[in-house]
């Protein structure tokens, strides 16, 4: 598949507010208070980055935990002056770090159709966009997960229809969200909630380490359990198929003249 590496994402203020689940008014207010840095300017348009998004999400988390905007402003000011900057910004960086290490690709509609061996219609594109796997970008398509695209193409090459691949991907997304929710619920209920509100600053190094380790731990558990589950399903669901194939082979051999 041909493609080129995508530059870091940038957002207009309305896009940033939507992703951070806040309002444009709040973004401007936080910026006026110095809680988030000003955007880069492209002409008259302000462009925000993933760092701005991470800072907004951190502000929301701290507000939910009982910090006032004044408290948050003082903490941010202390960070920027170097007071506990390693611990506090380390926590912010851990929250901001993308857990998906894949590099996005930009491909054409023809490239996409070539990969799947058929024309990908508008309805199918809308479904895949709901999964946040593809995004239309002018006359190009931004592929957010090349690995999932390759997996889907391999299934289609093996004989699975594109609608079936998309439908199962939608169902799997629901299952995966439940698994992720279980992991985060476990951390919240067993580690974060007992700390009380607001969370003591002294706990930030431990929380930073926890956030950093959560992804590989979750991947280890899910990979191990998924492998075991697939083995069980193959034995339970496909053993009859293998028996039929063996029986058919034996019948063919028995019918041949000796």
TrEMBL record:
Keyword DNA-binding: yes
One Pfam short name: MerR_1
Gene3D superfamilies, per database record: 1.10.1660.10
Keywords: DNA-binding
Coiled-coil segments on the chain, per record: none
GO MF annotations in UniProt: DNA binding; DNA-binding transcription factor activity
Record-annotated HTH merR-type domain positions: 10-78
Annotated InterPro entries: DNA-bd_dom_put_sf (IPR009061), MerR-type_HTH_dom (IPR000551), MerR_fam (IPR047057)
Signal peptide positions (record): none
Protein name as catalogued: Unannotated protein
Organism for this UniProt entry: freshwater metagenome
